[in-house]
């Protein structure tokens, strides 16, 4: 293992040195035009970096399917849909495909089923195996056909959505058809036939799902190879079906001849497909076929039948974000979106902008990306200065470049280049340590410094005037070189007297320009403004910014100066572009408020049509002076980046423009940069009303007190989305039109009323959209509404009527209150009598209870005294007598304990603290056994006990102990009120889901007026002689509560003197409290 590591490290060092050698080598070959990729990843808000599918819907939203959720993108921010258990969410977070039907529903396949999302309200319906709406949860792809049929490819076959049944049915891949079960991909050709990519090959089926043709996987000639087929793509224009395999490369099926052409990776062929694992296939609107592989993006060259390959490069931020390509999509504006394992790359296939930059392979023409100074010599060689690595000399005819710096030529004194110019065979290079003069053969003729008369060695700009003099701008003044005599002229004293007005300030000269009339313009930094030297009359004009004068120059940091064909001077500053009218000395300003990309202006070029091109910190802007229309270019248009550099703007004799920045050099012909003339369209994204989200609020009415209304909008043009300017206003308020690049607005504390929000967009091409609008209203408070006014009128009318009949109503009111008072007195009298009776019952109850408690206590006390007395006698107490006395005491203790338990149980029952223990019980057996234990007790009173059930058995859920207790209480109560010679009868009757138990006696009976009160806690039975029988009265109260706890009922049927019948109704299965 140690040897392997050592070899790897040595190999890595050799490889790095080899790349460095390539960068410094004198001649560098270049290949095809590079593509500039603009990248998105998780840092911009996407839920996860693995992008398995990209889709643009009919409204313009771009959807991304990842391994951790579904994402909707509007160019500004992401809306993420995740799986949530038991909520309105997608079927699974692992997304495999997305499509849209004619109703605007978004169909999403996942490894957990299929989801249908309604974007109007974000309502989601899932289709899974568990609800029998689809046969497999492992959904690979979804296709909405030309006939608006929704097809889903799964590992168990092909499924068709039935809109009427709202479920999927299998149309291909039954159990006996294994080859048609594992379907990875599905597409439809222009004839309506369906093409399927499967584990074992490709199948062509009709729109009625009948198999037409099979292309199995195999290793022979005219075959697809042996790998699983991950992708099928129908290219109807060229008559091919493109097939992507998991391990056998790319295949092309000729639909006319069925001939198969296969493309595989060849290590020795740079034009081969870069990997045999094909992730996706897409043909764009310009006819290019793009193939995403596990190791890069490939573009098919139709004429040469090979591929251009694009890879991720760790040193190039504008290369592919990752080599593992998962998905491809072309949006409505022609941008290609590439989904990878590590995010998204976006590029424009139609970009006419060249990009020269540095890199570690032979596809790059610069040795450093930070560019300062651009010049094309008379032979067409392009000289490009860099920040720290000297000069690159590019032969654009042969696509080669060579470098000139101190490491190659020691006479090249400094590698930090600031500007380049030349004339004829002579080239001048401005550096941070002097001026370098050389001829076209690259021979350095001389180095100039302060020793040679320069005012400073840090040279920022050089310009050859119409007389052949070289003007040299430094960080501390101006020098002029006579190229014929090699004499350096210092004119600083002349300028100082006018610029600084006696103050000791530095003359930092950033740019020098000579106009058509021979005047010299000096762009100064350090807040020194613009200086104009007129050599004819030897005068100097000085322009500086004034906060009180809107027609003064916009800023005192002047970076670049140019002139159009009409003689207007264009001045770029650190805060905007200025057009100087020479006659009036007044400036017209252009800032971001006028639509330019950024206010920091680095370069100003005038094209052959007099359009103005400026480089900034946020891209390039074109201004048409005739109508002030602005077009903005950004990274997605092919720029090296959005940030550019000073002294890196140049126009050659053919009218080609060059702009250098922090990531290389761009060149283009202005007429090639034709932006779309299509109007942008503003769409409303969402509305937040007091933080509650709405998808549409048009014509909605919101309640009084609505405090915050936020509106989000966007234009579905992703090449310049964040450069789009919006103009909006809210009609119904005093506010005017607001111009901004923000895509959202919030209104607070709106007054009740009707409102209309109107917005339009101006894209980077200057195209203005139609106005989009939404109307809503805020209801007034109720006291200001129309209903309230009607109520006010009615109140006035009612007041008049009320006043008219006031006396009459007062009389009626007195009468009514008098009657009510009388009724209240009568009710109070009844209540008083009832309370008196209750107190009487309570007194009787406690008297009887005291008697019941005293009797056993007296017996126990007497027995104990008798025992103690007998024990004092000499003969003592006999054993049989002692046992008898103890039995007497024991029985009375039990009687006393039973009475106390009844009191406790009665209290528990009253306070709902009694809990039953329910079990299945044969109620017939339980009642019979309980009654049998009472026969001796009843017989001892001279009463007959008859048990006469109508059924043999009946099983119910009950607490057997408590039901037994109830039977004992009822039989004991009957025995108490039945005279000697009487009869007690127990019957049981089946009532299907209930059972009826009746305990009847031939006793004294109960008056009907006491039937309801007999089960009350303080109520006691009164016999025929109106006498209260002895006893606590708790037995029937406890019995009543126990039966009710069983969800049963108990009542009495009796007449005074005719006996009583106590009836219990019990349910078979009570719904009550139980252990």
From TrEMBL:
Q: Where in the cell is it found?
A: Cell membrane
Q: Report the GO terms under cellular component.
A: plasma membrane
Question: Known PROSITE patterns for this protein?
Answer: HIS_KIN
The UniProt entry lists the main location of this chain as membrane
Entry keyword Transmembrane? yes
Cite the EC number: 2.7.13.3
EC main class here is transferase
Which residue ranges does UniProt annotate as crossing the membrane? 782-802
Domain Histidine kinase: where? 848-1070
A Pfam family matched in the record = HisKA
Q: Which reactions does this protein catalyse? A: ATP + protein L-histidine = ADP + protein N-phospho-L-histidine
Question: What GO terms are given for molecular function?
Answer: ATP binding; phosphorelay sensor kinase activity
Query: Do the record's keywords include Phosphoprotein?
Result: yes
Keywords of this entry: ATP-binding, Cell membrane, Kinase, Membrane, Nucleotide-binding, Phosphoprotein, Transferase, Transmembrane, Transmembrane helix, Two-component regulatory system
Where are the coiled-coil regions? none
Name of this chain's protein: histidine kinase
Supply the source organism's classification.
Bacteria, Bacillati, Bacillota, Clostridia, Peptostreptococcales
């Amino acid at each position: 293992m140690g040897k392997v590591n050592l070899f790897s490290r040595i190999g890595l060092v050799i490889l790095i040195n080899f790349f460095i050698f390539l960068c410094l080598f004198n001649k560098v070959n270049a290949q095809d035009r590079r593509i500039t990729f603009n990248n998105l990843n998780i840092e911009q808000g996407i839920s996860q970096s693995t992008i398995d599918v990209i889709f643009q819907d009919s409204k313009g939203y771009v959807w991304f399917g990842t391994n951790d959720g579904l994402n909707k993108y509007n160019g500004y921010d992401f809306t993420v849909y995740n799986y949530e258990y038991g909520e309105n969410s997608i079927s699974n977070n692992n997304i495999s495909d997305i499509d849209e039907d004619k109703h605007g529903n978004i169909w999403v396949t996942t490894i957990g089923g299929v989801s249908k999302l309604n974007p109007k309200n974000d309502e989601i319906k899932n289709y899974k195996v568990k609800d029998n709406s689809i046969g497999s949860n492992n959904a690979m792809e979804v296709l909405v056909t030309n006939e608006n049929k929704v097809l889903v490819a799964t590992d168990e076959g092909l499924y068709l959505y039935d809109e009427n049944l709202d479920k999927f049915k299998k149309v291909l891949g039954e159990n006996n058809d294994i080859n048609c079960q594992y379907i990875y991909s599905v597409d439809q050709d222009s004839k309506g036939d369906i093409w399927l990519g499967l584990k074992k090959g490709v199948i062509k089926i009709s729109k009625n799902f009948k198999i037409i043709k099979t292309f199995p996987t195999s290793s022979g000639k005219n075959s697809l190879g042996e790998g699983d087929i991950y992708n099928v793509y129908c290219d109807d224009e060229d008559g091919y079906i493109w097939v992507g395999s998991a391990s056998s490369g790319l295949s092309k099926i000729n639909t006319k001849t069925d001939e198969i052409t296969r493309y595989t990776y060849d290590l020795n062929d740079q034009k081969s497909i870069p990997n045999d694992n094909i992730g996706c296939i897409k043909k764009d609107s310009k006819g290019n076929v793009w193939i995403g592989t596990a190791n890069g993006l490939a573009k098919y060259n139709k004429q040469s039948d090979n591929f251009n390959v694009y890879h991720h490069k760790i040193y190039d931020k504008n290369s592919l974000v990752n080599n593992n390509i998962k998905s491809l999509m072309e949006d409505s504006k022609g941008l290609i979106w590439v989904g990878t394992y590590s995010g998204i790359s976006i590029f424009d296939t139609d970009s006419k902008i060249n990009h020269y930059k540095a890199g570690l392979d032979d596809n790059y023409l610069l040795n450093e990306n930070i560019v300062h100074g651009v010049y094309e010599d008379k032979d067409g060689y392009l000289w490009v200065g860099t920040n720290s690595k000297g000069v690159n000399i590019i032969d654009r005819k042969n696509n080669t470049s060579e470098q000139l710096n101190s490491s190659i030529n020691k006479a090249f004194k400094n590698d930090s280049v600031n500007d380049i110019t030349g004339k004829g065979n002579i080239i001048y290079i401005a550096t941070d340590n002097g001026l370098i003069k050389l001829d076209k053969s690259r021979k350095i003729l001389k180095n100039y410094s302060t020793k040679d008369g320069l005012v400073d060695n840090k040279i920022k700009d050089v310009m050859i005037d119409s007389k052949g003099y070289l003007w040299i701008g430094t960080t501390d003044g101006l020098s002029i070189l006579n190229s014929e005599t090699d004499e350096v002229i210092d004119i600083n004293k002349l300028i100082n007297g006018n610029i600084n007005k006696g103050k000791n300030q530095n003359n930092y000269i950033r740019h020098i320009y000579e106009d058509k009339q021979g005047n010299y313009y000096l762009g100064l930094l350090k807040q020194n403004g613009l200086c104009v030297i007129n050599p004819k009359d030897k005068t100097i004009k000085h322009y500086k910014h004034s906060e009180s004068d809107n027609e003064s120059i916009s800023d005192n940091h002047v970076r670049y100066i140019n002139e159009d064909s009409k003689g207007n001077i264009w001045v770029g500053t650190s805060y905007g572009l200025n057009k100087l009218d020479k006659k009036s000395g007044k400036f017209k300003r252009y800032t971001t408020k006028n639509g330019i990309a950024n206010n920091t202006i680095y370069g100003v070029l005038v094209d052959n049509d007099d359009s103005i091109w400026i480089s900034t910190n946020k891209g390039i802007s074109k201004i048409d002076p005739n109508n002030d229309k602005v077009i903005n270019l950004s990274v997605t248009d092919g720029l090296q980046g959005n940030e550019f550099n000073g002294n890196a703007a140049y126009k050659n004799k053919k009218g080609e423009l060059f702009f250098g920045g922090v990531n290389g050099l761009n060149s283009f012909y202005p007429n090639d940069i034709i932006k779309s003339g299509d109007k942008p369209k503003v769409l409303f994204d969402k509305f937040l009303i007091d933080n509650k989200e709405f998808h549409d609020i048009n014509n909605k009415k919101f309640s009084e007190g609505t405090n915050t209304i936020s509106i989000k909008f966007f234009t579905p043009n992703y090449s310049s989305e964040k450069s789009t300017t919006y103009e909006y206003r809210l009609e119904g308020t005093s506010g005017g039109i607001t111009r901004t690049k923000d895509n959202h607005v919030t209104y607070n504390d709106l007054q009740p009323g009707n409102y209309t929000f109107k917005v339009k967009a101006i894209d980077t091409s200057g195209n203005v959209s139609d106005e989009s609008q939404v109307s809503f209203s805020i209801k007034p408070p109720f006291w200001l509404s129309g209903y309230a006014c009607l109520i006010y009128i009615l109140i006035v009318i009612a007041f008049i009527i009320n006043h008219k009949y006031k006396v009459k109503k007062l009389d009626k009111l007195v009468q009514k209150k008098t009657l009510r008072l009388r009724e209240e007195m009568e009710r109070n009298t009844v209540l008083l009598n009832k309370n008196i009776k209750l107190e009487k019952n309570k007194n009787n109850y406690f008297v009887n209870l005291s008697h019941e408690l005293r009797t056993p206590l007296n017996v126990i006390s007497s027995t104990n005294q008798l025992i103690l007395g007998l024990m004092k006698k000499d003969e003592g107490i006999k054993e049989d007598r002692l046992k008898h006395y103890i039995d007497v005491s024991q029985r009375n203790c039990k009687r006393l304990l039973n009475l106390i338990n009844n009191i406790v149980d009665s209290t528990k029952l009253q306070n709902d603290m009694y809990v039953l223990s329910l079990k299945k019980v044969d109620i017939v057996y339980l009642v019979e056994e309980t009654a049998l234990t009472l026969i001796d007790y009843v017989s001892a009173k001279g009463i007959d006990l008859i048990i006469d059930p109508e059924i043999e058995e009946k099983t119910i859920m009950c607490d057997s102990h408590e039901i037994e207790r109830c039977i004992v209480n009822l039989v004991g109560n009957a025995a108490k009120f039945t005279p000697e010679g009487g009869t007690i009868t127990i019957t049981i009757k089946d009532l299907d889901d209930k059972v009826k138990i009746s305990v009847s006696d031939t006793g004294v009976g109960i008056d009907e007026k006491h039937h309801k009160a007999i089960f009350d806690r303080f109520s006691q039975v009164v016999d025929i002689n109106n006498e209260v029988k002895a006893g606590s009265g708790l037995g029937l109260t406890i019995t009543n509560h126990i039966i009710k706890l069983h969800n049963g009922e108990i009542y009495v049927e009796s007449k005074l003197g005719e006996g009583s019948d106590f009836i219990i109704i019990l349910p078979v299965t009570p719904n009550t409290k139980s252990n």
